[in-house]
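Q: Sequence in, structure out?
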Amino acid sequence: MRNCLFCHGNVSSAFGWSAFLGLQKRHPVCEDCENSFQLITGELCEICGREWTLVAEENRHGDTCSDCFRWEGDPETTGLLQQNRSVYQYNEQMKDILARYKFRGDAVLAQGFQKEFRNTFEKVWDKKVRPILVPIPLSPERKYERGFNQSLLLAEFLPGKPEELLSKNNSDKQSKKARRERLERENTFYVPEPEKVMGKSILLIDDIYTTGTTVRMAAKVLKDAGAKDISSYTLVRS
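A: Exactly. Output:
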């Protein structure tokens, strides 16, 4: 018996020769916790990856939701993001785990999502033509407070080495701001070495996609630096 990363209850596993010889990697999450998270399935918004069954009829514009329709209708943001794909819906259980992961410094919790995060990536992105993995950065101040970059930890679960090609200046905490304030804030991302992104396909890695503001602001500076195209991949879709 081992303890679940999330609830600290027992995690049972079937005994076999693979487990005995150490060839089988043990899952660190119990069945109850695993079942409490909601995987994103079925038809999706073509751009943001929102599950289509959660989009009301009046908020559908062809293959995109109303949020993406507005982003694409704005000359400042049209075409910045090719697509976003996420693994889980944002429910109460995920809300609690993300808070522990991001704001209480419990970095080890990321390991509980490693299997599904990698599996979904393998299904979506072609093995032969994969983009450069670029984690969304934290400002120096925020990284010092937290002790780690949660997006970088997630990126390290994926095939290929993440490249920290983006940087971020210090700014106010975005989780404390209303949606409009977040949309209107100054873009604090920048690309320290533009030559490294010139002509490249970039995949931004982050923990959660909510309004799409963060990834589009990151995409804007990458596009301005010469990146060919930008998509994003997040653990959660709010």
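The chain has two domains: 1-36, 40-237.
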